[in-house]
Each structure stands twice: as C-alpha cells, then as structure tokens.
Amino acid sequence: MIRPLSERDDAHALIARETERVRAGSGRLVLLRGATGTGRTAVLEAAAEHAEARGLRVLRVHCSPHDSAVPFSAVRACLSRAPEFADPAPAADGTDERDTAARLWRLLRSYAAESPVMVTVDDVHLADSASRRWLVEAARRVGRLPVLLVVTERSQYDVEPGPPGLTHALPPSLVRTHTLAPLGDDAAAALLRDALPAAGAAWTEACVRAGAGSPLLLRALLDDLGGTPPRHQPQPVPDTCAALYPGAYPAAVSWWLENAGPATAEVARALATLEQAWPTGASGGTGGPRAPGAAGWGATAIPSGTTTPSGTGTGILTGTGAGAGAGAGVGTGTGLGTGLGTGLGTGLGTDGIDPAAVIAEATGTDPARVTGWLTAMTRLGLLRPDAAGQPRYAHPLLRDAVLTGWPTERRERAHRRAAEAMLHRGGRVEAVARHLVRTPAVGLPWALRVLRDAVTVAVDESRPGDAVAYLRRALDEPLPDDLRQRMLTELGSLEYVADDAPSAIARLGEALHLPATPRDRVRTALALSTALAGRGEVGTAVGVLRRTEAHLTGDPGLTRTVRTAAVLLADHDQAQRQEAYRRLGETAARTPELVGTAGQALLVRFEATAGLIPAEQAMTRVRALLAEPGDPLSEPFLLGTAAAVAQWADRLDEAERLVERGLAGQHLTSLHPMRHALLNTRADIAAARGDHRVLLAHLTDAGVRRTPWARSAPFNTDAHALLALVHTGRLEEARRFAAGFDLRQAPDSWELNRFLYARGALRAATGDPAGALHDFLECGRRQSAREVLSPVVTPWRTAVAECRLALGATEEALVLAEEELRLARVWNTPRVVGRALRVLGTATGGRRGLDLTEEAVRVLREAPAGTDLELIEALIARGRQLIDAGERARARDCLREAAERAEHRGAVRLRCLARQALHEGGARRVGTARTGSDALTGSERRIAELAADGRTNAEIADLLHLARRTVETHLTSAYRKLHIRRRGELPTALHPSPHD
Among residues 555, 578, 559, which one has the least CA distance to residue 567? Predict the structure, then answer.
C-alpha cells in the first residue's frame, strides 16, 4: 500500500484502487485538488512509488510557469523520458497542433503496449494550454488502455478568479476527483510529535497554530526552529519572523502569496494590517482548536476530503470560475461553489465594523470577493475567529510573515486607508485611532479630532497607556503653540500615571517653556512639580513652583494656588517643610488674603500635627474655610487638607465625603499634587476603621495604582498594609513584605516615617522589642525634626514606652507615656487619649495603673463605632492588671469581651493575646473555635479574602501558585466553617459589622 501520510488515507486508497484497475487494462484520470501547501505533491510522489512497486512505468512532470509559452512543453517533458523513443518535438516544417498531439498520443500508446503506465502531472494549472487540451483529450481515450493519468491542481479561492479547471469539460464518468483538506489540529500535532517526540504540549500547540493546517508551513517552521524545541526552559514560538533563521517559514508564506496572485496578496496583507490595530485581551486571541474539516468564520460546514465521481464534488474550497451565489468558490477548476459563503454573516467585531467591508474599501476590491476569501481562508486554517467573531491569522507569526517584505510606506498607506474606511463607515473612534497611530501625520482636521476623542474614551475607561499612544500620535499633527502646550501637559500627566515618569517630566518641562495662558502655565507647573516630587526631587519641584509664581502678575488666585502646592509638596522633605510653613505663616500673619482658604487649611493641619490645637477647634476652622468660595484650581488642596484633619478628629464619615469630593475633581489628564494625598487619607480612614480587607487589597489588587516612586521608597499604603498583616496574624508574610524595601535608599519623607512605625509594630509582635525600639525611636526622631509632635499622626512615644517596659526600663517608659498623654489631651479625641491612658496605666501599675486603664476603657467606649481596635487593647491591658490584682473574675469579663471584639474585627493577633491572658487568668475553655471566621486556617482565610475581593478560583490559583483543586478545597472548608453557601456572602462572613 501507499506509505500513509497524515489525513491522506482516502486519497491513497483512491489512487491504489485506480492503480489496480489500470493493471487490469482500464485507464482513468484522477484529479488531486487542494490549496497551496496542502501536500498535493507529497501525495503524488507516494502514488508514484506505489505504482512502481506494483509494476507500472511512471512518467513524471512538474509544470512550471516558465514553460507555459511553449506548446506541449509539459507533455513532451513527461513522455520523452525513455531514451528508446525518439524526440517527440514538433517538426521543423511547422506541423500544426493536431499533428503534434497525434504524435504524442502514439508515443503514449507505445508505452502502454510495453506495460501499464502511470503519468503524473504536478501543478497542471501551470501547464501550457496545448498540454492541458491534450490531457483532457487523453482522459477521453484512456478508458481502454492501461494508462492512469494522475494530475494535481491548485484549487483555492483567490480574489481574482482563475481560469476554468482542467476537468470542467469532462463528463463525471471519466474523472475521479479528490480534494485535499488542510490538516486538522490533531493530525498536525501528531506530525510534530513524530518529528520531535520530546516537544511539550504548549510548544506543539503554538506550532500547530503557526502551521495553519499546512504541511508546507509546518515543515518550514520546523526547519527554522532548528528541529529541536527548547527542553529545559520552554520558550513560546516567536511572534515575529525576525526571530527565525534561516527564514524558511516566511519564504513559504511568501510563496503562498505569490501563487495566490497580487490581488489576493493585497487583501491578505490588508487583513494583517487591520489585525495589527485590533484590540487585544478577551477578543485578542484566536479561537479554539479547529477540528478536521470544521467550518470556520461564518461558514457552513462541508465535509472535507470528500471523493466524488466528477468535478462537482463537495470537497473543501472547490469552486467554479463563475460559481453561483455571492459565496460561490472560485478556484482553478470545476467544483461545487455553493455553501462556502452562504452561511457567512456580517462578521462584526469589537469595533462594530464588518472587516470584509473595510478591507474591500481599503484595497478597492469587490466586498463579496473579500467575504468569500475570508471564509475560504478560515476553512483552510490560515484564519481563526476570535472571541468577538473577527477573523484573525491563526498565529501572530503567520500574520508577521504575511507582512514580511512589505515596505513600511505600503503598511502606513494601508493603515491610513483603513482609518478612512472605518471613519466613513461610522466606526468607533478608537478603532479609527488605532490605525492612525501607525501612520505619519495626515495633516487634516479629522485626524486630530479622532485622536483627541480616542484619548477621552481611553481616559474615561482608565486606560492611560492607550491614551498616551493616541496623544503622542496627535502631537505629530500640525498644531498651534497653545494647543500643543495643553496637549503636552495632558500627555505628561498620562505618562506619569502610566508609570513612565522620565518621559512625563520631559514632556511637562517642554510644555512649561511654550507660550500659554497663566492658568495653563500653572496647570503645567503643578503637574511637573508633582512628577518631580514623586521621584523624590522635592527641592526641584518647589523650585519649579516658585519660578512659576514669579511670572504670575495680576492674578492672586493663581498665586495662592502655586504657593499652596509648594507647601504641600515640601511636606515630603524635612528642610523644605520647615521653610515652606515658615513662609506661609509669615504671609498669613501679614496679609491673610494672600494665603487663601487652602493655605489657611494647611496652617490648621500644621498646628494640629504640632500639638497646638484641639480637634474641635481644628474642625471648626476647616468647616468655616470649606464654606467660603474658592477657586476650582485650588479646591482640591482645601478638600484634601480638610479630609486629613477630619480623619485625625475621628470624623470618619465626614472625612470620607471630603475625599470623594476631592477625587471626583481629579482627572488622569491633570496631574495634581493633592491626588496622592487624597488617596493616602482614604487609606488612613480604612485603617482607623480597622478595615483590613481594604488595606490588604493593596498587596494583591493589580487595579490599585501606585505612584511611580522608586520601589525602595515605601508609601503610606504600604505602612497600613504591613500593620494589617500584623493585626491579622500573618506575621511571616509581613516579614517578607517589609524585607522588600531597602530603606537606606528611600528618600526622606513622612511616608517613610509611617513605614518605620509599622515595621516597629511588626518587630514588637514577633518578639523583637530591641529592634522595634530602634524603629520607633527613629520614627520619633524624624517626626520631631519635622515639628510633628501630636500622637494623632504616629503615636511613637507610647510604642517606645511599651518596648521600654518589655526591656525592663520602667522609668523611661513612664516619662514617654506621660508626655504622650499630655499631647493627646491637647488634641482630645477618645482614641488618642485612650491609647495614652492605656500605656501609662500599664507602665504605672498598681492601683493607680488600674484606675488609668479603667479610664482608658471608659474613654474608648465613647469613640466612633467601628474604631474599636484601641478599645480591644485597653480591655486586654485592664484584664491583665486585674489578674495581677487578684480580681480574676472581673479580668475574665474584660478579656472575653476583648476576644469577642477581636474576633468580630478579624484582629487575629489581638484575639490571640486576649486568649493567652484568659488562659493565664484561669479560664477553663479558651480553645480554638470550630466554626466562624476564627476557625479558618491561615490558608483558608487568605483564599477566602481573595475570593471575597471578587477573584476567580483560577486567578487565586495563579496568584498563590496553587492547584485550582486546592483552592476549591480550601473554599469549601471555609464555606462550611462560616455557615454560608454563596461566594457573595464571604465579605460579610469574614468581616461582620460590629453591630451584627
């Protein structure tokens, strides 16, 4: 039998049957049809080998377009191979075609008289017309001769219809036609595994897609990949031909395009160009695996490889030159054309435009022909529909190969034509803009309008990276200086948000030197100074604002805004801060109107942190300032400052409203120094409420934006996240997180001080009071140097006092605790006073200490609802003191309340401390609960927290490097312990309200 090839058994069986028929004395014409690269030649060679093995004489010829001008060149080349026969060339006297055909027929009969004969003609569509007519006539006569004619013919839907096929004029009884379908995914994978048994599944799948069902492309790809897939560190199949050598794969794709003709090549490249501008993501990948013979994009399924007695068979991609219907296949031979395009829908994708219509308009091609080509190429496997239904090349490497060798100017022209076509057809603005970013300047108003509208869409959807690309391209268009200045400011702001601070600073610096109105200049200065401060260059940032202020004349509102911004940014640097507040205070004392409401609010904040005014007075003053009319440009400063003061005063709901008002006025395209401060206050509010879930989202939620400072510099949100890890008992994770920061490289900042305090809390919780003492003292030293004395920001004195107590230095602890209480009573909110009383009571001891902790509990019970973490610590401290005083029953009451509150708040560390104290106080049952959030293991709680945040099981598995089954097992156990049935109940079950 014929040597088996992948999915070619039907073709081999057909030729084997016809071979035996010829041996019995009866001839036939067998036509093998198929698209470029489907393996027609391989099947023909296998048939010839089989025929020779069965005793047939095989006469071969491979047709070439170079010989198409010489009459009978193909037949002569085939029949003149045996030296015992004379040269069948036409006589020199100009004997006509009929006489030459007769001589060639007699020559074939003479072969047949010797033994059965197989004549193989490869690529008959390239043969000269005389040879094609001779073969058709021979097919009519071989029925009574032992002659088997086996002919291969390219049959593919091309945009320009080819000539009629070889057998279109023959009756079905004289021809056996078989169409070779592309390889299915399974067959292609099997071919790869035969060549490379060690290849992995992912690597094989990528090769299958890049091979697109074509044995030609598969073998060329294997040649370029060196025949050996990477074994130890598998790398994906490259997406570009530049990564391939020696280039057999792009050469094979180029050969396919040349065979298809210039019109088809133009459409193929237009699709590749169009696809470059399509969005990636959910609809960015190709469709699922293609089963052998499966219908493609919008096509009606037709069985592949169907053998029929004539050229009207339903083989894949067969068609007539003038096939019926818009979707009729048009190939180089006869065949059923119906059904190929009849099932093709509009194919509208994510951009709302029919790709076929855009390609047709961009290339000047008949839309029906483009639709038919898309359907045909999908059936061949070169295209696969994505999730949105758009036809895409099966692999990015295939798309890149289609574009290889196409000049850049041609690509840019194609993108411009596509943009114009989509605009003409009412396409989405971003769909048009994605093509414009790949073209040089258009110089027409519509291009700039489209790009700016696309920026607005991308910004509204929080995609700063896309907005940056559109703005960069928009700046290539002709622009007046004032518009260029505004767009550069907008671009710099977006680049900063997109984590490209160096580019942002360069853009904003350029914008600052262009002509602009005073208000636009101030906006640019605010954005540039924010970006500089974000990189730790606070002095430079303040200098930019002061130089801008020097150029402002006749606009006191803008001057106040610039001065306020300078003070706010100076807060990040100790030396700059002192000078800024000194100047602000002196100005306010001389001429308050030059300071403005925002500047006065900053002075209130300064006095609050310096321990000079109580909370009630601070709130009265900021509320009065909020009631005054203000400039929109300076309003964020006022709102953000007031929100910080309200948070310190435990007016958390009021602070939250102010934060949301301030953020509502912020925009990605307007970089403002107050945005970071507002986000910090939002985190402070969550910490005051003990909302650990929100704080820990900072560690896992990719949607939480980080200001692009150096990674060595921790933020306020990092400090809160570290404290939340400590409170929830995740100490090992907290150690790893804290170790990720090199504080020696961090610039001086109040946020660094916050992180030092948080790291000290971690060290204290892990039994390292000496290390904790070092961090707390350093935090205190830095805060004091900044004139931040009030415990409302960081209560470092009480933290140091607790470390001193742990190390046996009671006198030093008492001094610090008393000073903290004095400052706390100045601010006079329950939380700061209660904390100071609790630590002083612990340091004092005895009856006096017991009275102080009792007062601490009483004061903290008056604190706002939901802020009871300090109360829990006070209850634990009081319980321990009652145990020492011998009042164990009262102690157990305090400690049980503390344990219950800690359980309710998810404060694992405090709960453990309360239970330890209960055990020391003689409580009989302090074991671990079997149900409720208290019963969750560390892994169960971590997975449940992520699920409560909305993550899927697959996302959790990827994030934690676990098997998906493990995640499901932990969640099932968590549901049982929490007495819930649905995922939506997790947030409430894990973090119940204190009033539940």
Answer: 578
